[in-house]
Amino acid sequence: MIGSSMEQKIKEKYDIVCEKYGKDSIVGIFVYGSTNYGLADSISDLDTKAIVLPHFEDIVRSKQWVTDTIINADDSHTEVKDIRNMFDCYRKQNVNFLETLFTKYYYLNPDYTGEWLGAIIKNREKIAHYDECKAVKAMYGNMLTKYKNMYKLMPHSTAEIEKYGYAFKDYHHLMRLAQFIRRYISGEKYEDCLIAEDREQLIRYKREPFPLTEVMETVQNTLESTKKLVDDTLDAWSEIKKADKEVEDILHQVEFDFIKQSLLHDLVTENG
């Protein structure tokens, strides 16, 4: 059960997207990030992703798919994506997008709730395993990005890197993703993999400095063991794990149904 405070915050972010894109164009808004992993603390942001539908004019004029970031008054971010773009991210097996299928914290447009719950949420484990080789590659690629960002001067991490030699949050994510990859490959449910093990330790990685030599050694060992696991897994899976045609059909059907409904609404409204 979502607490009233959390529900209110999510609804406020939903309303902001409605104001910008129209209340009939939004499918829903979903929390992503530390809250979904059981790793949120008192200073964690409540970031969200919203799915919107194209208007009739967007289709006729071949406008680019919406991809936008709204910075909210509390400095949290709402990433807004056209449903076609969002579903492509599901097909690419990007964990940062797939997690929206498993979050307990969301707000749905009542017009689309039935099919979303009945087709997408009902099949979320299948969608998250649509292409398991692609999923492992995506997770590992994300992990390597966090490794590079550990030492890369960026606005959010410059002060930490200059003082301690590395970025805390990227170290935290690298270690979390290594754990995720191991559990996914071992066959755990995607929903379970999202909830981090060693919660207290992972939060410490995000908030506290550790000796740089210790961090570098831990990271090197983690990268080496994860690379071996990923390489061995992909060798074993390459001939037996294929993209799931059933999932492709589900995503295409929901995408078609939702866009059709949105366009019909536009035409009815236009003709008054």
Tell me what the structure shows.
This protein is of the alpha+beta class and 272 residues long. It has 2 domains: 151 residues, Beta Polymerase, domain 2 (2-Layer Sandwich); 106 residues. The protein is 61% helix and 10% strand. The chain is built from 14 helices and 5 strands. A 5-stranded mixed β-sheet has the order 3-4-2-1-5. Strand 3 and strand 4 form a beta hairpin. Helix 4 packs antiparallel against helix 14, helix 8 packs antiparallel against helix 10 and helix 10 runs antiparallel to helix 12. It is globular, with a radius of gyration of 20 Å.
Characteristics:
272 residues; alpha+beta; Beta Polymerase, domain 2; five-stranded mixed beta sheet; 14 helices; globular
In brief:
By secondary structure, the protein is α+β, with helices and mostly antiparallel strands.
Low-confidence stretches: none
Distance between the termini: 40 Å
In round numbers, the mean pLDDT is 96
Helical/strand content category: alpha+beta
N-to-C series of helices and strands: HEHEHEEHHEHHHHHHHHH
* CATH topology grouping of the largest domain: Beta Polymerase, domain 2
